[in-house]
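Incident log, structure service

09:12 report received: a user says their structure output differs between two submissions of the same chain.
09:20 pulled the input from the user's history:
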Amino acid sequence: GINAEYMGSSGINAEYMGSQACFTFDRLMKAETVIFFLLVLAGASAEGVFLQPTSAKGRYGLFAELKEVDGTEFGAKLMDTIALQFKNQSPLADISKLLNDIHAELVTQQKNADVQSEVTERECQKGIAEYNSRVSAATAGIQEAITSTATLNKKIDSLNLDVANKEDQLKILAQKDQELRDARRRDTEDYANRVQQSRAVIGALEQIVPELEHLKPHGNTQTALAELAKIGGDNPIAAFIQVAATLDPGVLQRVIQRLDKIKESLFAAIDEDTKAEAEAKRNFDKLLGEMENVRTNIENALAAARSELEEAKQTMVNVKRTLRENQQELELSSNGKAQLIQQCDEKRSRYRSEKASREAQINTVEKVQHIIASKLDTMRSYVQTRQRP
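09:34 re-ran on a clean worker, output below:
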């Protein structure tokens, strides 16, 4: 006697309605009516009012209760169902069986909802804990990246300064190297000029001294002047001989001795100068070697500093990328946590609302069950007189 159209639109939730839409009058007829009537008779005996005439005052109170039931969507549809059963003259046992089934289904639904609520709550707590872990990890990652960025900035600044200093050192060293090479070249040229000049003097002396040794002084100044006039300025050695010819033999001898000493001193000077030049060249080569070692060390240190600088810059790129990733993760996890909290709050609110609604429906079914079991005549009267839009 319960048509599927009503069951699809009743106040019982969709899950229950889907499972109960197949109830038919034939199925209800299979109820164990004997057991039902025994239970009803026992309840009626306790109440002392089962199928007893109801006083006007009592009927008014029951009508008020039934109108209260009828005032809710679920109660109105439940009363519609009962009215249909009365109209179809369904056995009382079938009506009671239907109400018991509805009551049992509502209780089962609430138990299932309670279990699901516990599962949902655990899932919410687990999800929030996971988001908290992600938030903590992202926050720690951001702080670490910020600290690393500050450290790397200092390191990069220091390495840039170190690289610039070493580049300046190489420039200074190259300039010093060029200055030393220029000075060495000038010293070599001066040495060659000195040796050349000394050897030229020695050569002249080697010509003059033998001639002076064979010279016969004549002491005639006029003769010497006449010879000098003939020689002119083109042959200074011949002119010197003519002057020496006017000297006293003793003086001439001393001149020859002095010239021999000059020649010897020039040979000694060349020898010392040559040794000094060789020593200067050795010192120069040694200094160049030392400077080359210094240059090599600076170049190696510069290469290492540049490599470390590039590594620090690449590390900075990685740290900044990690910082961005952690910032994005913090935003995502924070938003995800907020959304999950909102969803969980909505589920809790929906659970509480559905629980309150379902408990009200259970109370309504129990109230109707009690009235049918104790005041069936009043129920029939109310159903016959109730008005539905």
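09:41 both user submissions now match this output. Likely a transient worker issue. Closing.
09:42 reviewer note: The two ends are 21 Å apart (CA to CA). Residues 1-54 have pLDDT under 50 and may be disordered.
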